[in-house]
Structures are given as C-alpha cells and as structure tokens.
Design a protein that fits this description.
The protein is an alpha/beta fold and about 230 residues long. Helix content is about 35%, strand content about 15%. Keywords: Hydrolase.
Length: about 230
C-alpha cells in the first residue's frame, strides 16, 4: 500500500469533511491507507485554499486532490502544488480565472437555487425542510436529515470569490457529472468538464450528494486518476 498516493478530499458548501464518509470507507477497502480530509472554514476561497494547501504540503509524496461541489473551486485554486499529480472533480465547480461559483450558478441556475436562504449574520443555508430534495434526494430520509441538521453554512461572500489561476489548466483532471443535481445545474457541470478537457468524464444518475449515494463509482473515478498519473 505504501506505493499508493495520498488521497486528499476537499468538501464543499453545506457540509464538512464527514460528507466523504462513504468514499473514505470504500478507499480503505481498496487498500488506500493514506487518506486525508480537509475541514475548510468556508469563510473565503482564499482561506479554504490556504487550509487545503497546508494539508497538501504536509504530505511527503504524490497527492490526488479530490473536490466535491465548492471544493472543486478550492482544488482549482490550491491544486498547483508540485506534489499534486491529479485533480478529481465530483459534481463540482471548476471555475476559470476570474470566475466564481456564484457567477457560474447565475448563468444557469440550479433547480434548488431558491431553497438557499441567508441568515442575519451573512451565512447561507439550505432550508432544512428542503435539504433532502435540494441536495440529497437519493439518500435515505435519515441520512439526509443528519446532513440537513449538521450542514455547515458558508459566508455568502464566498460565492463571489474569483479563482485566480486555475490548476486544471496544468494538471491532469477527471470529472463526475451528477445528472440529477439540483445544486449545480448538470449542464454547467458538463460545460466546466468539457472546457478542462479531462482524461475521463463520467455521468452518474445521482443527486448533488453523489459522494454519499454512489461512493463506489466515485472511488472508481479516483482510482482511474491514480492509475493514470502514478501507475
């Protein structure tokens, strides 16, 4: 197992590192013993990218960087470190220079856009009673309830933070589209994937929470990135 790269998982909005639970278990079953999951503050793209860079820099050896949702913007901003060998996007934003997740969403609003609401402190939440239908309609009611109650709200301003130098222009990339995604429009995912010219794109009949509902297929794509860049 020691010859396998470290897999660094980067979560998005409305969740934390534990959103990767099913992927972590599946990676471990397949012999990956070097797995890390970033816990981003969701306070700004700069803060989240720096948190991710610090974790990657602690790794001695190659890293496959995997981002879900807004985590795709984070790995796009932070993925230029020399030991990052591949970028894997899971139903994720992949902004170009000068683009933000908010701008991409406004161009083609997702189905659940109106279920996002700000609070008086400047944080954005998915309305708890709308969480399952918005984020995780292919999970059980119990699993979706836990996600709804434990959701981690981003500062609203983070939606508008632009990527500066997209790492996908210089790193091998893989992309997973969720065809039933209600948080990022599936056509936006397809467009972002197409322009980065990934080594492989897969489409899953899944919600935005494909990392939880289809972990085996997600890990299949991660393994394809491992095999395609580190042998």
């Amino acid at each position: 197992m020691s010859d396998k790269p470290t897999i660094v998982l980067v979560h998005g909005f409305w969740g934390g590192a534990a959103h990767w639970a099913n992927v972590i278990v599946e990676l471990n079953r397949r012999g990956y013993d070097k797995i890390r999951a970033v816990e981003n503050p969701l306070t700004s793209l700069a803060d989240d990218a720096e948190r991710t860079r610090k974790m990657v820099k602690q790794v001695d050896g190659p890293v496959v960087l995997v981002g879900h949702s807004y985590g795709g913007a984070v790995i796009t901003e932070a993925g230029d470190l020399p030991n990052v060998t591949a970028l894997v996007y899971i139903a994720a934003f992949a902004p170009d220079a000068g683009e933000s997740p908010g701008r991409i969403s406004q161009e083609k609003p997702p189905a659940a856009f109106d279920n996002i609401a700000p609070d008086s402190d400047g944080y954005l939440w998915i309305k708890p009673e709308k969480f399952r239908e918005s984020f995780a309609q292919d999970l059980s009611e119990d699993d979706a309830l836990v996600m709804a109650v434990t959701q981690k709200a981003p500062l609203a301003s983070t939606f508008g933070d632009d990527v500066t130098a997209p790492a996908w222009r210089n790193k091998p990339c893989w992309y997973q589209v969720s065809t039933q995604d209600r948080m990022i429009h599936p056509d936006n995912e397809r467009r972002m994937a197409q322009r980065m010219n990934p080594r492989k794109t897969v489409e899953l009949d899944a919600s935005h929470a494909s990392l939880a509902s289809q972990p085996k297929a997600v890990v299949d794509l991660i393994e394809d990135a491992v095999n395609g860049t580190t042998g």
